[in-house]
Design goal:
With about 280 residues, the chain is an alpha+beta fold. The chain has one domain: Deoxyribonuclease I, Chain A (4-Layer Sandwich), CATH 3.60.10.10. Helix content is about 25%, strand content about 25%. It contains seven helices and twelve strands. A six-stranded mixed sheet has the order 3-4-2-1-12-11. A hairpin with a 5-residue loop joins strand 6 and strand 7. The chain is globular and about 50 Å long.
């Protein structure tokens, strides 16, 4: 009798532990920001054709649930989707609002994540139409998504952007526009939010002051983090200009710069992807 009770107790204890483990896993998402470097650039041995195989290899290794890409052209987006078929994406070309120019796309693992809604706006005085804002050298956009974890129904916002590399006013005003829009999206329900992007500034730049009041940098607040630079210029790590910010998550467990070599390519891009785990 005692032996039977012990076996029964052990069974339920194991089941409870497994349930707890699954619940914890389902309550955590892995997110990434990745500047893929525009595929039309004349980068010689580091051209997209020579290094593109590294991207699906990296995705298979890191397995992000959602990731935002910067500088991607339509043929690069198609390649990622074809070689990593569990991922789907949304976004538009910044030059015409359709397919022309760089796209700040959001990829999500469709086996785990459901897309509920999405859109793109321009970082300018006229955000609803293709336009260049303030002193920017280029048209800049932000792509937003409303996503849901299929397993448990948890919803969250994911926003991806690329701030201008020249215009200081464009960076400051563009980021302010993003922050205000994030607040506007969360008026009815305070959902967890992720903001990813190449901001083209280091962490001490004044344009980040307001953002730091409203959201947390994964690099700074992760339980386990690193301080490696994310921009390498196809040579060596140089500076921190890529970011993952979050709000309304209970914890950022890990943050890291993904500087491993994949598919025999010394550099996956002129930026290393950055990766973070976030707990609801």
């Amino acid at each position: 009798m005692k032996k039977s009770l012990f076996i029964l107790f052990s069974f339920f204890a194991a089941a409870a532990a497994l349930l707890s483990s699954c619940s914890a896993k389902d309550s955590t998402i892995t997110v990434m920001s990745y500047n893929v470097r525009m595929g039309v650039a004349n980068d010689g041995e580091n051209s997209w054709e020579n290094r593109k195989a590294a991207t699906p290899a990296m995705l298979a290794d890191c397995a992000p649930d959602v990731f935002g890409v910067q500088e991607a052209f339509d043929f690069q987006l198609d390649y990622i989707e074809q070689t990593s078929p569990s991922y789907k994406w949304v976004g538009v070309g910044r030059d015409d609002g359709k397919t022309k120019g760089e796209c700040m796309a959001v990829f999500y693992n469709a086996e785990k994540i459901e897309l509920l809604d999405w859109g793109t706006y321009w970082l300018s005085e006229t955000p609803e139409v293709p336009s260049r804002g303030w002193d920017a050298a280029c048209r800049r956009t932000a792509t937003w998504t409303l996503l849901k974890i299929k397993e448990n129904g948890k919803k969250f916002w994911f926003v991806n952007t690329h701030l201008d590399h020249v215009g200081k006013q464009a960076r400051a005003n563009g980021l302010q526009l993003i922050v205000d829009r994030i607040d506007g999206m969360n008026t009815q329900e305070k959902l967890p939010t992720v903001l990813t992007g190449d901001f083209n500034v280091t962490p001490d730049d004044p344009c980040l002051v307001e953002l730091n009041k409203r959201m947390k940098s994964a690099r700074t607040f992760a339980v386990q983090s690193d301080e490696k630079p994310s921009f390498n210029g196809f040579k060596a790590p140089k500076s921190v200009i890529d970011y993952i910010y979050f709000s309304e998550f209970s914890e950022c467990g890990t943050f890291r710069v993904v500087d491993s070599e994949y598919a025999g390519c010394p550099f996956i891009s002129d930026h290393y992807p950055i990766l973070a785990t976030l707990k609801f």
